Amino acid sequence: MLSVNKTKFCQGVSDISDSYAGFIIDQWGVLHDGEKPYEGVVECLRELKSRGKFIIVLSNSGKRAQVNKERLKAIGIAPTLYDEIVTSGEMAWQGMKNQDEGFFRNLGKKCYLISRGGDRSIVDGLDVELVDDIKKADFLLISGADSPEMSLEDYEPILKAAVRKQMKAICANPDSMGVMGEMNIMGPGTLARRYSDFGGVVHYIGKPHQPIFQKCIQMLQAKEIYPGQTVIIGDTMAHDILGGTLVNIDTALVRTGLHAGAFRGTKTPADVDKALNILSAQYNNIRPKYLLHTLKWGKALPDRKHKKRALKEV
Fold first, then answer.
1. Where residue 160 sits, what CATH number does that domain have?
2. Which of 228, 209, 208, 242 is nearest to 102 (CA)?
3. Cα first-last separation, the chain
4. Is 7 left (phi over 0), alpha (psi -120 to 50) or beta?
5. What is the pTM assigned to this prediction?
6. Do 107 and 198 share a structural domain?
7. 20 to 30 Å CA-CA from 126: which of 107, 143, 193, 268?
8. Across the chain, which distance is largest between two alpha carbons, in Å?
């Protein structure tokens, strides 16, 4: 059984910034809500960069890294505010390009793609042919879902047809739920799990699975930053907090994003701790090391000295 020590409640990232050189930060639900950055995010990233922190944006996005970089820039998060961006879509693209190891070996060239809004960028530049008839495909690629316009049941005929053909499936975004504005929407991971329910074989790329975290660790070690000097900040227990725990990196959960509802109505530290206990019980009793309300810096430091803030532990 996995477990961590009591969670420390923080006023902002300034409470923990002196303790870490590397920051791995989730995208949806932490940096933005799919439409705009959360209040204080840009200022927080700017403060971290001014202190020489190495920042990796880590996302279960089914799109490639460059596409995500452009999207972040479009909503006001400039590339100068972080150092690297790692996405499950990018790792899937690399695997499909090479097709030389593990699940990707001899995958085939004909792909049936399930994506959001008909987006095909995940196969751009690949020697892969997209087919509209699932019966003609060599493999199934799930990178997005048209939720809420389409329901899980709407996808089931395609999933069943692929299972009947004993087709391999790649899920380039394991998120079961996603954040879009004020609502949670079905994620592609839900489609992949239904495919498994029907008897299909799925290869998941992204959090909480270790390869994508190991990719981040390699980037950090190239800068002589090691796991003990790194913190992961995310909004989901199932992906960010579990994944970080599995690779022995400290974690911080933000109350925005996917678990916002779990903290609704909490007024005292005891209320918040009770909400965390409920979440922890649902995820093998793991707990984040820190809890943040949002990804904000906290109170300003007029002299910009690196002073540690007191942490309230409950």
1. 3.40.50.1000
2. 209
3. 22
4. beta
5. 0.82
6. yes
7. 193
8. 65
Q: Is 303 a residue whose pLDDT tops 50? A: no
Range of 154's domain? Answer: 92-204
How sure is the predictor about 299, in pLDDT bands with cuts at 50, 70 and 90? Answer: low
- Among 204, 229, 251, identify where a domain stops: 204
Q: How far is CA 23 from CA 10, 54, 188, 220, in A?
A: 16, 6, 26, 9
The predicted structure's pLDDT at residue 190: 93
Domain tally, the chain:
2
CA torsion sign for 153, 158, 161, 162 is negative
**Dihedral, CA atoms, 197, 202, 206, 211, nearest 10 degrees?**
130
At residue 185, does pLDDT exceed 80? no
The secondary structure of residue 61, as a DSSP letter, is -
Among 136, 238, 249, 144, residue whose Cα is nearest residue 191:
144
Question: 237: which DSSP letter?
Answer: I
